[in-house]
Amino acid sequence: MKPIEVAIERLILASRWILVVFYVGLGLALVVYAVTFVRQFIQLARQAFEIDEDGMILAMLGLIDAALVASLAVMVMISSYENFVTRFEAADGAEISWLRKLDTASLKIRLATAIVAISSIHLLQVFLNVEKYDSSKILWLVVLQVTFVGSALLLGYLEKLVEKPKPSIAGE
């Protein structure tokens, strides 16, 4: 029975490499998203002298939003690969110790924070174009934003509750 158990455990452990397909897919999606970002930027640059300040702010918020979404994808790819597949190794001796700080708990907090930031930008864009939206849609967007903020705060609080205290060193 033991050889079957060992074989099953090895198969389950090896299946983590299937996740690489998802991370590579996110990387390729990031390339496509970068193309749309460049298109957005070129469009903004062409209209720079024709749009008013509010239009420029809205366009810049769109670019910031795109950067946050891209950063979110990179954060998920790197930390998930590091946590679930295998550890990164510095091929050229470069310092990559910052990767060790992206464990699954901190990733959840960072994801929630990024979602709140992205949602905040969308809400700000709505408020800058308030005449284009009906009040019920604005209300739902605000409710959604409050829900995101509440979820992020709750995740942070729960993480604090389960955080393991670091052992103290005698004499400190």
List the helices and strands and how they pair.
Elements: H1 2-14, H2 19-46, H3 53-85, H4 104-128, H5 135-162
Helix pairs in contact: 2-3, 3-4, 4-5
Describe this structure in words.
The chain has 172 residues and is mainly alpha-helical. It has five helices and no strands. The chain has helices at residues 2-14, 19-46, 53-85, 104-128, 135-162. The longest helix has 33 residues, at 53-85. It is extended and about 75 Å long. The N and C termini lie far apart (51 Å). The mean pLDDT is 85.
Shape type: extended
Counting copies of identical and different chains, the oligomeric state is: single chain
Low-confidence stretches: none
How far the N terminus sits from the C terminus, by CA atoms, comes to 51 Å
The SSE order reads HHHHH
List keywords for this structure.
172 residues, mainly alpha
